[in-house]
Amino acid sequence: MRPVRLSYPGRGRWLVQNSPADRVPSHGTSLFALDHAIDLVPVDDRGRTAPVRLRSLVAPEPPEAFPGFGRELPAPLDGEVVAAHDGEPDHPAHRGLPAVGYALTQRRRLADGWVGLAGNHVILRVTAPRPLAEDGAPDDLGDAGASGDVRAVHLALCHLRRGSIAVRPGQRVATGERLAACGNSGNSTEPHLHLQAMTAADPSAARPVAITLPGGLPRSGEILDMP
């Protein structure tokens, strides 16, 4: 299946984690169309996130201590905003022993549904070339708004900083236009961007769609420099 080609969804240097280039489903589950999702962690010029100190191993840390907290997130394609959820807090980051305790509470966030996992988020409806099935006929990915050689695809950008969302539902955005800022809301151990594509705006009813970035789909551990 042909992946949706995106422009970079950030600025500066980012560390790739949970990449579908390494495994699918990339996050270990197919819930909420997560199969081809990717995580991008903002890092400094040396490719590092916040320094790990003794306190990091035993206590939660403020998200402001991390180099990419608040970093600008541009639209990776032209599209229309279909959802923009704000108001969820940017909670402390969890590394070391705090990460273990945080993982034990994941079931509680899962019980809160999509918002409990995604936190503050924006969903864009974009159009992309329609892939062909093995028999040469167009597949059925996308919704009723797609026709001909294009399909409707929905992009979700998650864990956004509270109060940073600069768009509203129904608004048209251009590639590179500011959407929000990187945060630590929802199911997140440290500030990062969770990015995924799907066939519908409702992740509980959608199917996953593969994506790729300029230069191809990176593997976990790679560093991306986004202009």
Describe the structure.
By secondary structure, the chain is α+β, with helices and mostly antiparallel strands. The chain has four helices and 13 strands. The protein has helices at residues 54-58, 97-104, 106-111, 113-118, and strands at 4-5, 12-17, 38-42, 72-74, 79-85, 121-129, 150-158, 172-173, 178-181, 193-198, 208-209, 211-212, 223-226. The strands form three sheets. Strands 2, 3, 5, 6, 7, 8, 10, 11 and 13 form a nine-stranded antiparallel beta sheet that branches. It is globular, with a radius of gyration of 17 Å.
Properties at a glance:
13 strands; 4 helices; about 230 residues; two-stranded parallel ribbon
In DSSP terms (H or I, runs of 4 or more residues), the helix count works out at 4
**Helix fraction?**
10-25%
Largest sheet: 9 strands, antiparallel
Gross morphology is globular
Q: Quick check: average pLDDT?
A: 92
Q: What portion of residues belong to β-strands?
A: 25-35%
Low-confidence stretches: 134-140
Write the H/E string, N to C.
EEEHEEHHHEEEEEEEE
Tell me the distance between the termini.
28 Å
- Please count the beta strands (DSSP E, at least 2 residues each): 13
SS-derived structural category:
alpha+beta
Radius of gyration: 17 Å
